[in-house]
UniProtKB/TrEMBL annotation:
<feature type="domain" description="LIM zinc-binding">
    <location>
        <begin position="10"/>
        <end position="90"/>
    </location>
</feature>
<keyword id="KW-0479">Metal-binding</keyword>
<dbReference type="InterPro" id="IPR047172">
    <property type="entry name" value="Ajuba-like"/>
</dbReference>
<dbReference type="GO" id="GO:0046872">
    <property type="term" value="F:metal ion binding"/>
</dbReference>
<dbReference type="GO" id="GO:0000932">
    <property type="term" value="C:P-body"/>
</dbReference>
<dbReference type="GO" id="GO:0005912">
    <property type="term" value="C:adherens junction"/>
</dbReference>
<keyword id="KW-0440">LIM domain</keyword>
<dbReference type="GO" id="GO:0035331">
    <property type="term" value="P:negative regulation of hippo signaling"/>
</dbReference>
<dbReference type="GO" id="GO:0001666">
    <property type="term" value="P:response to hypoxia"/>
</dbReference>
<dbReference type="GO" id="GO:0005667">
    <property type="term" value="C:transcription regulator complex"/>
</dbReference>
<dbReference type="Pfam" id="PF00412">
    <property type="entry name" value="LIM"/>
</dbReference>
<dbReference type="GO" id="GO:0005634">
    <property type="term" value="C:nucleus"/>
</dbReference>
<keyword id="KW-0862">Zinc</keyword>
<dbReference type="GO" id="GO:0003714">
    <property type="term" value="F:transcription corepressor activity"/>
</dbReference>
<dbReference type="InterPro" id="IPR001781">
    <property type="entry name" value="Znf_LIM"/>
</dbReference>
<dbReference type="GO" id="GO:0007010">
    <property type="term" value="P:cytoskeleton organization"/>
</dbReference>
<protein>
    <recommendedName>
        <fullName>LIM zinc-binding domain-containing protein</fullName>
    </recommendedName>
</protein>
């Protein structure tokens, strides 16, 4: 790696676990990951996740490519479909905005 780290600062770039005294791997870009063997990772929203860390941020549902477990990202957050809809409903006004008059001209 060519760098010095405080023991508490040597952490996995995905899960932020301290790697002081435990096996780790390094990718071609010198990113540090926990585990001595190559582990399966999920790439979503231009980020790299351990499979077990790839879950809905609101309810904790494990996300994958199965129906009912797919990821519906919203504003940089990993969400399941239900939590995605819930967050959208929170942001929607309870009453629709006033409509603007529309003028139609016949040619």
């Amino acid at each position: 790696l060519g760098k010095s780290y405080h023991p508490g600062c040597f952490r996995c770039v995905v899960c932020n676990e301290c790697l002081d005294g435990v096996p780790f791997t390094v990718d071609v870009e010198n990113n540090i990951y926990c585990g001595s063997e190559e582990t399966i990772r999920v790439v979503s929203m231009d980020k790299d996740y351990h499979v077990e860390c790839y879950h809905c941020e609101d309810c904790g549902l494990q996300l994958n490519d199965e129906e009912g477990h797919r990821c519906y990202p919203l504003e940089g957050h990993l969400l399941c479909h239900g939590c995605h809809i819930r967050r959208l409903n929170i942001k929607l006004p309870s009453h629709p905005p006033p409509s603007y008059p529309m003028h139609v001209t016949e040619l």
